[in-house]
Write a structure and sequence with these properties.
Layout lengths: L1 H47 L8 H56 L7 H4 L8 H9 L3 E11 L6 E11 L14 H8 L7 E6 L8 E4 L10 H6 L11 H13 L4 H6 L10 H4 L2 H15 L3 E4 L5
Parallel strand pairs: 4-5
Antiparallel strand pairs: 1-2, 1-3
Length: 311
């Protein structure tokens, strides 16, 4: 029944679109098929009106031929402009949507990235020298990762506050466990820390970087790529992954064994064997969470935020 409702909505939208495009198609077809006829009608009016009665037949034929050529050429040019109108309207729609996307990206970048953001390699610790000054500042702040001051936030598409005036400090060496009923805002708090959602009030300061030298987020629903078992463990280091070797393979296999996923090596045929399945379809929810923790053990960040456990 719901599928039929959606189908009826789609058909209704298509009917509205056809009604709006009707006059456009009528204009295009009129200029395409009646252009030559209209040109001769325009020439016939002065001829039958008696304005050229004094011309000889040969001169009259020459005059009709010249005027017909000019009229047909002008109408052909107008017809081309009208034929292009459908393409222009499609281009205008695409341009409008792309413009809205760029405006939103610019707005988010200004609100969430006011300070200088490290590059991808810097975030994941491959260029340590570029982060030395930043690390010194963080060490002076006492190894603080997050600082929340009078933070209030709501759920998506809701005006009711889940948390009001939360003041919280997350520092190195101290575990933090947040408990509560379903829908009380635990996952939303993680999204606020990860800068995915904006707060209704207050300020959220992230005083560390992403990756092994900073913080790593473990969402409630893990994310996996369409790739090999190695790529699932090292994610998101695929593009800047160092040269592989035996020591790194041993680390990955060790963490897979520790998390109880040693059987995945047999199922996939190895770390670098391509598979033709979707990881979300093959792995059980427990296996996906274990693989997510194997990823955590591999990266070994200073901080790890999860909706299940916090380290």
């Amino acid at each position: 029944m719901r599928t039929n409702w959606k189908l009826q909505d789609l058909l209704q939208t298509q009917k509205e679109l056809m009604k709006r495009e009707l006059w456009l198609y009528i204009g295009v077809n009129v200029f395409d098929y009646l252009g030559s006829i209209i040109s001769y009608i325009i020439i016939a009016i002065p001829i039958f009106g008696g304005q050229y009665n004094g011309l000889a037949p040969a001169a009259l034929i020459e005059l009709v031929s010249k005027n017909a050529f000019v009229s047909i050429y002008l109408i052909h040019c107008f017809s081309q402009l009208i034929d292009l109108s459908t393409t222009v309207t499609d281009l205008a729609g695409y341009t409008h949507r792309i413009g809205e996307l760029q405006e939103m990206i610019l707005k988010l970048s200004k609100s969430c990235c006011k300070s200088r953001q490290p590059s991808c390699k810097e975030l994941w610790g491959f260029e340590k020298d570029s982060l030395d000054s930043e690390d010194e500042n963080k060490e002076e702040s006492g190894g603080m990762a997050f600082n929340l001051e009078q933070v209030s936030f709501t759920a998506l598409s809701s005006k009711e506050l889940l948390v009001k005036n939360l003041t919280l400090t997350v520092t190195a060496g101290h575990n933090l466990l947040v408990t509560g009923n379903t829908g009380s805002g635990k996952t939303t708090l993680l999204r606020v820390l990860n800068r995915l959602w904006e707060t209704a009030d207050g300020s959220v300061r992230m005083l560390t970087s992403f990756g092994p030298r900073g913080v790593m987020f473990l969402p409630q629903k893990p994310y996996f790529t369409d790739g090999t078992l190695r790529e699932q463990v090292i994610y998101p280091l695929k593009e800047i992954y160092p040269i592989t070797g035996l020591p790194d393979d041993e680390r990955i296999i060790h963490f897979l064994t520790v998390t109880g996923l040693g059987s995945l090596l047999k199922r996939t045929g190895g770390l670098d064997e391509r598979v033709d399945w979707n990881w979300f379809d093959v792995l059980s929810p427990g296996e996906m969470q274990r693989l997510c923790f194997a990823r955590l053990f591999y990266h070994q960040p200073k901080y790890a935020d999860s909706t299940h456990c916090c380290y």
